[in-house]
Design brief:
It is built from 21 helices and 23 strands. It is an alpha/beta fold. Among the domains are: about 5-65 and about 305-425, inorganic pyrophosphatase (n-terminal core); about 430-550, DHHA2 domain (Diaminopimelate Epimerase, Chain A, domain 1). A six-stranded parallel sheet has the order 3-2-1-15-16-17. It starts with a strand and ends with a helix.
Length: about 550
């Protein structure tokens, strides 16, 4: 059963992380045991504070859910060592009904690919090519193994040689005339129970005699062969079959394609599909980071559907979702933002006008009468107070307040005291570079054909911002330029005074539409504005419409 990732948006905030943890547990306890909490961005100091406080590990980091080679490859690799014979390879390929085999060294690195096509060209070359059916490049031990032959006496059994086959099926006189035509030290005589031919071959000191049909050899003849250094094998097959099989005793290292195409297991299918499709090979070794073969990718594997499912929490727009989300099946959405997702199929879409996704998750536990542990209640409490600024944000509803009171009771945590600790636990403008600060809680939006970003930093006072004003303004401008946004906005919110500063990097025409007091160039004072979702975003989209119509 494949996993279902319960995952928040890029650059996750506290509510996104807490909701993912909570909803993953809810799904596990209501019939989806394979639900797993995940994240597609780094945590920050405040998120880490929440996780430490309530004893939860950070959700699994997933940078991209697009299918990778490892998702479709065959991991039960059928392979052979370089020392295997072609006969063994053909038997294995016939048994497994495969046409390409990787040949692996002892450390599982790939020596090359063995293809049925290349072997067929070796044994059955085109008519116009010269073909020496007599030559066998092998050791006598491999020859015996291929023939299932008994080795009566063999000298240097493991020496690989270019041997010449000669079948003793002619008259003794004709055989005697042909023997001198070939170097005797390379000759293998294949003969049945013709003792006269056997004696002549022993007398001429050929390299080996293969006696076919399982015929017996007299002690005198065996002793003579030993004295003359003539190796002797007993084949259970007839002479024609023995001669045919002998050529397959060559080792596969002599038959491999040593120039081949391989892929890394962690490569994305989209990146390798073109190369694989254009290749003359039908299968490709798949390597791990140590270049060991861990799988085989065939061209047909490229057509396999990867069963990857997502549940999106605290967002519903693909621009904010984990990379590769468009290739996965989004089966549910749990959110409290504006609707921006267009799904391919009907899905469970729970989008409610409350201040926090954690509120929705906690309500579902209560609705299903599922007991929450104090730590789980605490993690959902943290999500609510962070997103609603402890019920002071304009997005706050009575439902948020009711649920927060219930979570306080279950967790034993005072929300007000916890909120003070939460916002004191980490200032982005103290712990991060300016570039990191403007990108940590940043969301991308698309409106009227324009793509833009809106980020938010929540601080206790504006002191840290004024200390780093120049570098933050520069970082915001670079962020806009790098991502080619129409404009980039940064809302710096003072959670104590419930007011904000707005920084803008955009075209002069758009910036001119901002009507809030400009206290410094491109810095605006937004008294009473603390919500990016409910207050700032609608205002910015309104300005965008005005800019487009003017």
């Amino acid at each position: 059963m494949s996993e279902v990732l319960v995952i928040g948006h890029k650059n996750p905030d506290t509510d996104s992380i807490c909701a993912a943890i909570g909803y993953a547990e809810f799904k596990q306890r209501t019939g989806m045991p394979n639900a797993v909490a995940a994240r597609c961005g780094d945590t920050n100091d405040r998120i880490d504070f929440v996780l430490r406080t309530f004893g939860f590990p950070a959700p699994r980091f997933v940078a991209n859910v697009a299918p990778k080679v490892r998702d479709v490859m065959q991991d039960n690799v059928v392979s052979l060592p370089p020392t295997a014979t072609v006969a063994e390879a053909l038997g294995l390929m016939d048994e497994r009904n495969i046409r390409v085999l990787p040949v692996l060294n002892e450390d599982r690195s790939c020596r090359g690919l063995l293809s049925l096509f290349k072997m067929s060209k070796f044994f059955f070359p085109a008519p116009h090519r010269l073909f020496d059916s007599r030559t066998v490049h092998a050791s006598l031990r491999n020859l015996a193994r291929t023939l299932s032959a008994e080795m009566l006496f063999v000298q240097d059994p493991d020496r690989v040689e270019s041997l010449i086959l000669m079948i003793g099926a002619m008259s003794l006189e004709a055989f005697a005339k042909r023997l001198p035509l070939y170097p005797r030290e390379k000759l293998i005589v294949i003969v049945g129970d013709r003792e006269d031919v056997q004696d002549l071959a022993i007398d001429r000191c050929v390299r080996a005699i293969v006696i076919t049909g399982g015929s017996k050899v007299s002690d005198e003849r065996f002793d003579a062969a030993r004295r003359n250094g003539v190796s002797m094998l007993i084949s259970p097959h007839d002479s024609a079959t023995t001669a045919m099989l002998s050529r397959t005793s060559i080792t596969v290292e002599n038959m491999i394609h040593d120039k081949f195409l391989a892929f890394q297991a962690e490569e994305y299918l989209a990146d390798v599909r073109g190369l694989a499709t254009a290749s003359v090979f039908q299968a490709f070794p798949v390597l791990d980071e140590r270049q060991r073969v861990v799988g085989i990718l065939s061209k047909s594997d490229l057509l396999r559907k990867v069963d990857r499912q997502l549940i999106l929490v605290d967002h519903n727009e693909l621009s904010q979702a984990v990379n590769g989300a468009e290739t996965a099946d989004i089966i549910e959405v749990i959110d409290h933002h504006r609707v921006g997702l267009m799904s391919r199929t009907p899905i469970l879409f729970r989008n409610e006008p409350v201040g926090s996704t954690s509120t929705i998750v906690a309500e579902m536990f209560l609705r299903y009468r599922l007991e929450m542990s104090p730590s789980l209640a605490g993690i959902l409490l943290a999500g609510i107070v962070s997103d609603t600024l402890n019920l002071t944000s304009p997005t706050t509803t009575e439902r948020d307040a009711d649920i927060l009171e219930t979570l306080e009771s279950i967790s034993g945590v005072n929300a007000t005291a916890f909120t003070e600790k939460l916002f004191a636990s980490g200032s982005l403008l103290v712990t991060k570079t300016a570039q990191q600060a403007v990108a940590t809680d940043c969301k991308e939006y698309s409106e009227n054909g324009r793509v833009f970003s809106v980020a938010q930093i929540e601080e206790m006072g504006f002191d840290q911002f004024w200390k780093r004003k120049k570098e933050v303004i520069k970082a915001l401008a670079e962020h806009r330029e790098t991502n080619e946004y129409f404009f980039s906005a940064l809302l710096i919110t003072d959670v104590v005074t419930q007011s904000s500063l707005l920084l803008l990097a955009g075209t002069d025409a758009f910036v001119a539409k901002i009507e809030y007091p400009e206290i410094e160039p491109d810095i605006y004072e937004l008294r009473g504005i603390v919500s990016r979702k409910k207050q700032l975003l609608p205002y910015l989209t309104h300005c965008l419409e005005q800019c487009a119509s003017s």
